[in-house]
Design a protein that fits this description.
Layout: H1 17-27, H2 31-48, H3 67-77, H4 79-98, H5 102-115
Length: 128
C-alpha cells in the first residue's frame, strides 16, 4: 500500500453518475442493491489504500463526495482494483445503460460538463 494523497487532476468526469444512479433507481428497485454491492467494494478498497472521502476537491458543490474521485484514485494505486474494474465496470455500464434512454445519457454528459465550472450551482442531483 502506498500512502499518498490522490492526484487532484483526476477529479474529472465525462458523465454525471450521480444523476444516472438517481434515474435508474427510480426505474428498477433492484438497481440500488446492484450498485451498492459494487460501490461497497470501492469503499473497502479506498479504506485499504487510505483514500479519504474528500481526498479530491469537487469541481462543484453537486459533485461533493462523488464515488468517482475515489475510484480514479484507486485506479492509480491498485493493479488489483484496476483489473477488477476492467471486468465489472463494463457489466455495470451495460445494466445501467439498459435502464436509460440515449437522451438521458446525453443530458448526464452535459451536466458533467457544466459541473466542471466551479461556479455552477445547478440542480442538486441527489434529490429526486
Amino acid at each position: 500500500m502506498v500512502d499518498q494523497p490522490p492526484n487532484p487532476s483526476l477529479a474529472t468526469c465525462g458523465i454525471c453518475t450521480i444523476r444516472l444512479e438517481q434515474l435508474c433507481t427510480r426505474r428498477a428497485w433492484w438497481f440500488r442493491v446492484f450498485r451498492e454491492a459494487l460501490a461497497s467494494g470501492i469503499r473497502l478498497f479506498a479504506i485499504a489504500y487510505r483514500i479519504p472521502r474528500d481526498a479530491c476537491t469537487a469541481r462543484s458543490p453537486m459533485c461533493r463526495r462523488c464515488l468517482r474521485f475515489r475510484k480514479n484514485a484507486l485506479k492509480e494505486r491498485s493493479r488489483l482494483f484496476t483489473w477488477l474494474d476492467g471486468h465489472l465496470n463494463p457489466l455495470f455500464n451495460r445494466v445501467r445503460d439498459s435502464l436509460l434512454t440515449p437522451a438521458e445519457l446525453e443530458q448526464a454528459r452535459t451536466l458533467a460538463r457544466r459541473a466542471a465550472d466551479r461556479d455552477f450551482a445547478g440542480e442538486d442531483v441527489r434529490r429526486p
